[in-house]
Design goal:
Blueprint (H helix, E strand, L loop, with lengths): L9 H14 L45 E9 L5 E9 L9 E7 L6 E8 L6 H4 L1 H6 L5 H11 L12 E10 L4 E9 L13 E7 L7 E6 L22 E5 L5 E7 L4 E6 L20 E5 L5 E8 L2 E7 L10 E5 L7 E2 L16 E9 L4 E7 L11 E8 L5 E3 L16 E4 L6 E2 L9 E6 L2 E10 L7 E9 L5 E9 L3 E6 L6 H13 L12 E2 L6 E5 L3 E4 L10 E4 L5 E5 L8 E7 L9 E6 L2 E8 L5 E8 L7 E7 L6 E2 L1 E6 L2
Parallel strand pairs: 22-26
Antiparallel strand pairs: 1-2, 2-3, 3-4, 5-6, 6-7, 7-8, 9-10, 10-11, 11-12, 13-14, 14-15, 15-16, 17-18, 18-19, 19-20, 21-23, 23-24, 24-25, 25-26, 27-39, 28-29, 29-32, 30-31, 31-38, 32-37, 33-36, 33-39, 34-35, 34-37
The structure holds beta-D-galactopyranose (GAL).
């Protein structure tokens, strides 16, 4: 193509995107080629982009929306030893059905992508094996059975309105240095021989090519490993399902396929054979821990993205909510077929509950030795699937094996500073006083690459205004990295420390130990029904016509709680307070069942202090200051449900403030 038709600037790129959006009615980019496009002329593509802009339109060198959804970037070298990136993904230019195949783009800088056409072409008719030279040549040696298998998996042309015969999702490519072959695995789905459901087939398919840009030749698709006997199996009658998937080649050349199985309930990692074209060991004879592992069992994880940094394997996954985004989670392991530990959501702040409106697909190892990695996600727009934007963000490593993905409106590879693994040895105090960070250490020991130094630290103390367990974040003066610790926050002058749910959790005992030294606390047990305290004799306790305790053996002040049933109120009554003093009453709220959307009105001695207190998955506390007891020295806290779900209390603390 001539240079005049190329995208020559960001403004043009954006204009084109706007025009596409305005004039293409349903299927985005209707002008997308349905066969391998001629590569652009030998010159370098025009430099249109110099940053990543997550969620914004992203056009290729020909001004068309990049069609590489659910994809992955392969880092390779050209003949001159220069880095050359290939981005593979689903071509959704025709929408959900009738996919032209798997598209591939190349780039020198990760911002600007040259259209290299279709790496793997799908089929519209079995006649193409004899009529279309592309298929005639590629499948020359195939017999009828093999051709049927190819058409079963690549025949994407929709013949009925209800079902798309072949669905090609989440393609991934690895290079086999031993066989000098590029190997592509794809989630190959569609109806099966026994079911007309859209995702009944649930197989992993494989294709090979001598060239990174194809043509890839389809071999077959397979069901993969199954849960070992004795372990929970969420699809015992439908063995070996394989859907959302990824690939990983380890330092020793061993390759692995990572996939959602058992109707997406469990996630497997299975070792591939030396050719990377099938499992190393077939399902019948495979052993867990040797041939495969199940990092998530019954956890409903999808969209696996895997990478390795400083000897640790990282696995980012999504939940399973179709095209709708949900919170990501990440897990780590020191051996790929060993124990995996989940660490929860790597994203934070606004958008963390939807992974910034995206679903993971891969991680680009831009500079793996220096900890330079890019998170790749898809922001699916199911009505116009082909224009689903991409969300690429830098990966930041925290202390130990922790990692984070932070939102950026725009960013460049310069923001991807080299990172090192670090651990912090901070001599944390048993507790800090409420709102007072002075007990936190001013200096900590930091170990990087086996070398330990001392660094000053600044603490973000915004969480210390709430009693109980608090997470504090420290920023190292050398290096600027952060780390977090849990610290117990204790108010002076405590009169009551109630852990609703009757559990003497370690944090409750910690606070009682401090309060005991001050000698002012009037309760000696975590919780009791209204009555005399067994040790101090003070009258206190909960009052409820019907309530239950939620006890967890490894819980804390928040997770152990008392919940009312049958829409009852729940009250706590306290006595022996001084009517001439003022008190602050803190109440801890947390919901292990947050989907219930429960809410309460909170009153103290009959005065409403909180009109609508919501219960969420966050640890929160209400701080009700300036409280006076009745003339008899009594304080009564009452929660009344304001919505249909029942209400609950995690803990109550009363301390003297004046
Ligand atoms: C998602 C999955 C996608 C696609 C989609 C279809 O959960 O990650 O790859 O299969 O469901 O609804």
């Amino acid at each position: 193509m001539s240079s005049t038709t190329r995208v020559c600037g960001l403004v043009t790129a954006l204009l084109l995107a706007a025009l596409t959006a305005a004039f293409a009615p349903s299927a985005a980019n209707a002008d997308q080629p349905t066969h391998a496009a001629e590569p652009a002329s030998g010159d370098e593509p025009a430099m249109a982009y110099d940053s990543f802009r997550p969620g914004q339109p992203w056009l290729d060198d020909q001004g068309r929306t990049i069609q590489a959804h659910g994809g992955q970037v392969v880092v390779s070298k050209d003949a001159a030893g220069e880095t050359l990136y290939y981005w593979y993904g689903e071509d959704r230019s025709n929408g959900y059905s009738d996919s032209p195949g798997i598209h591939v783009y190349s780039s020198r800088d990760l911002y600007n992508w040259k259209d290299e056409g279709l790496a793997l072409r799908s089929m519209q008719s079995p006649d193409q094996f004899t009529t279309d030279p592309y298929f005639t040549e590629l499948y020359a040696g195939y017999d009828d059975t093999q051709e049927q298998a190819v058409y079963r998996d690549l025949g994407t042309r929709r013949v009925s309105p209800d079902v798309t015969p072949a669905i090609l999702e989440r393609p991934k490519v690895i290079y086999n240095a031993r066989t000098h072959t590029w190997v592509m695995w794809v989630h190959a789905d569609g109806p099966s021989e026994t079911s007309n459901a859209q995702y009944a087939k649930a197989r992993a398919g494989v294709a090979v090519s001598d060239s990174p840009t194809g043509p890839f030749r389809w071999i077959d698709s397979y069901r993969l490993h199954v849960a070992p006997a004795g372990e929970p199996n969420y699809q015992p009658d439908n063995p070996g399902m394989a859907r959302d998937m990824n690939l990983f080649v380890d330092d020793d050349g061993s390759a692995y396929i990572i996939y959602s199985s058992e109707e997406n309930y469990s996630l497997f990692i299975s070792k591939l054979n030396d050719d990377y074209t099938y499992l190393a060991t077939p399902p019948e004879s495979a052993a867990k821990g040797v041939d495969f592992i199940r990092p998530y069992i019954g956890a409903h994880r999808e969209a696996p993205a895997i990478f390795k940094f400083a000897g640790t394997y990282y696995l980012i996954t999504s939940g399973a909510t179709g095209w709708d985004p949900n919170p990501a989670s990440y897990a780590t392991a020191t051996s790929i077929l060993g124990e995996w530990t989940d660490h929860g959501n790597p994203t934070s702040g606004p958008g963390a509950d939807t992974t910034y409106s995206s679903q993971s697909t891969s991680v680009v190892p831009v500079g793996p030795a220096g900890g330079r990695f890019v998170f790749m996600g898809d922001r699916w727009t199911p009505d116009t699937l082909g224009s689903s934007p991409y969300v690429w963000l830098p990966i930041r490593f925290g202390e130990g094996d922790s990692m984070a993905v932070d939102w950026r409106d725009a960013w460049t590879l310069d923001d991807l500073a080299p990172q090192q693994r670090y651990t912090v040895d901070a001599a944390m105090p048993d507790f800090v006083w409420l709102g007072d960070s002075r007990k936190l250490p001013r200096r900590v020991k930091v170990t990087r690459n086996g070398v330990t130094t001392v660094s000053g630290v600044s603490w973000d103390t915004s969480t210390l205004g709430q009693p109980g367990p608090a997470t504090v974040t420290g920023t190292l003066h050398t290096g600027g990295q952060t780390f977090t610790r849990t610290v117990l926050v204790v108010p002076h002058g405590l009169r009551y420390v109630v852990n609703a749910g009757e559990q003497a959790t370690p944090d409750w005992r910690g606070i009682m130990a401090v309060a005991g030294e001050e000698g002012t606390v009037l309760n000696s047990v975590p919780e009791q029904p209204l009555g005399a305290d067994p040790s101090t004799g003070a009258t206190w306790g909960y009052v409820s016509e019907e309530s239950k305790a939620k006890e967890t053996t490894d819980g804390d002040l928040y997770t152990t709680l008392r919940y009312a049933v049958s829409h009852r109120d729940l009250s706590y009554h306290f006595s022996d307070l001084d009517p001439d003093r003022t008190y602050t009453v803190h109440v801890g709220y947390y919901d292990p069942w947050p989907w219930a959307n429960r809410a309460a009105r909170v009153s103290i001695n009959g005065t409403v202090v909180d009109q609508q207190r919501l219960f969420t998955s966050q640890y929160t506390a209400g701080a009700y200051a300036g409280i006076r007891s009745t003339p008899d020295g009594e304080v009564t806290l009452t929660l009344t449900p304001t919505r249909s779900p029942d209400i609950q209390v995690s803990w109550v603390m009363i301390f003297q403030t004046g």
